[in-house]
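Quick question: who can interpret this fold?

. . .
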Amino acid sequence: MLLPGTYGVTAWQLVGPQLAQLGYCVYTFAYGNGETGDIATSAQQLARFVDRLLARSGAKRISIVGHSEGGMMPRYYIRFLGGAAKVADLVALAPSNHGTLNPSTFGGAIVGCVACAEQQTGSSFLTHLNAGDETPPPVNYTVIETAYDEVVIPYSSAFLTGPSTRVTNVTLQQQCPSDIVGHVGITSDPVALQWVENALARRTGPADPNFVPSC
């Protein structure tokens, strides 16, 4: 399942078709009034969609690939709405897991974008989400981030804390220093795609931290 970021500006033209070609059943999901609504409410919408999808497909669990807010919001579903029993992998591209210090990057000044304010560092929503265990089992978590992220600032705020058996944090430039992709473009980045594929292909655990992508 592919989840876009705030305002739904995420491009899945690379990731979606490639995953489908590899044999995955690919679904997209729009949420929260153009991805701007209250994030907890969006997570409730996700919960209902997952239940319908599992009932229709007969699958036991799903894997989620999310961008920005779409990589963070499922964590609320996993932690507070029963998603831990229904999600196998959460693969997050430049997620806003701990928010951003830049007050303008999510358009926070725009009236009506509740999710923008909730993604600011120190918001009550993020404080609640990140209190205690950030990565509840048995879900596997892979965070794929770029050091050139101009939206999630600092970029390291995307990363999650948890055991290495279930959590892998990836900075694209560690293996491919010439890759200067930013926040919006990461979903169209071939290096990021290789990390997504690696995470989803693993029988157990998140992406292999020793994986060497082609740059």
